[in-house]
Amino acid sequence: MTKPVYKRVLLKLSGEALMGDDAYGINRATIERMVADVAEVAKLGVELAIVIGGGNIFRGVAPGAQGMDRATADYMGMLATVMNSLALADAMRQVGIIARVMSAISIEQVVEPYVRPKALQYLEEGKIVIFAAGTGNPFFTTDTAAALRGSEIGAQIVLKATKVDGVYSADPNKDPLATRYSTITFDEAISKHLQVMDATAFALCRDQKLPIKVFSIVKPGALKRVILGEDEGTLVHV
Ligand SMILES: Nc1ncnc2c1ncn2[C@@H]1O[C@H](COP(=O)(O)OP(=O)(O)O)[C@@H](O)[C@H]1O
Ligand SMILES: O=c1ccn([C@@H]2O[C@H](COP(=O)(O)OP(=O)(O)O)[C@@H](O)[C@H]2O)c(=O)[nH]1
């Protein structure tokens, strides 16, 4: 079975995962491995849009941001996602993949602004679109940005590539007895307050009937297995 089960997907890449084993920042080997995974599925002809987080950079500045106004800190977080997006697009360029970064906040000398029809055009042309700066609003997360952009571009699924290999009954990093769901409904995930994604992202996807697949960004080949419809991670559905 080598045919993708999706035509267009929104891939959410963890910002925090980008730092690899470092304390913060972008780990070169990690970003190259992520790009190799993405290249493999792009070759299958899947239209890929990506939202990347910013936790890896924000960690490095967090001590200095203590006591800071929340909205200001969030704008810093959004700028961190712009840096990650640029790094990701450049790492893609180095392996011959054409990517376009579009930002939700306007910094036109650096990246082009998000314009939905333009994003759709890039996807149809087979380019990878990287959505930077989250939703452009403080008090949101890049998971919510993934839900929003995924809905806007008519993605068939949101793929959340994160540090854990699925949705668990409790945070597996804190509770060793937590068990993994192979599927779970949005209502269950929300009512059980499962923290793997924020409730805003879950609610938006539920309302748009946009399923989410949560899987490991660390496990080799996991993204490809998800794209091929193989048993991997946790499906969150209506
Ligand atoms: N019920 C749960 N199932 C899985 N992971 C959970 C759960 N509750 C909390 N988590 C935590 O959520 C984290 C993933 O979410 P998040 O911090 O938003 O990561 P990302 O960097 O991918 O955005 C996991 O590393 C895990 O520790
Ligand atoms: O629409 C958005 C998206 C992100 N952020 C900020 O950017 C940070 C980085 O994003 P996130 O934590 O989602 O990244 P990840 O967990 O994937 O590293 C967040 O903490 C927020 O401070 C925001 O304010 N609005």
TrEMBL record:
Gene Ontology terms, MF aspect: UMP kinase activity
Gene3D superfamilies (UniProt xref): Acetylglutamate kinase-like
Subcellular location: Cytoplasm
Keywords: ATP-binding, Cytoplasm, Kinase, Nucleotide-binding, Pyrimidine biosynthesis, Transferase
Keyword Kinase: yes
Coiled-coil regions listed in the entry: none
Pathway assignment: Pyrimidine metabolism; CTP biosynthesis via de novo pathway; UDP from UMP (UMPK route): step 1/1
Residues reported to bind UMP: 54, 74, 135-142
Superkingdom per UniProt: Bacteria
Catalytic activity as recorded in UniProt: UMP + ATP = UDP + ADP
EC number(s) stated in the UniProt entry for this protein: 2.7.4.22
Aspartate/glutamate/uridylate kinase domain sequence ranges: 7-216
SUPFAM superfamilies: Carbamate kinase-like
Main location class: cytoplasm
Keyword hit for ATP-binding: yes
Chain sites annotated for binding ATP: 12-15, 55, 59, 162, 168, 171
Enzyme class per UniProt: transferase
Activity modulation notes: Inhibited by UTP.
Entries under InterPro entries matching the protein: AceGlu_kinase-like_sf, Asp/Glu/Uridylate_kinase, Uridylate_kinase, Uridylate_kinase_bac
Function: Catalyzes the reversible phosphorylation of UMP to UDP.
Subunit structure: Homohexamer.
Family: Belongs to the UMP kinase family.
Protein name: Uridylate kinase
Organism listed in the record: Paraherbaspirillum soli
Encoding gene per record: pyrH
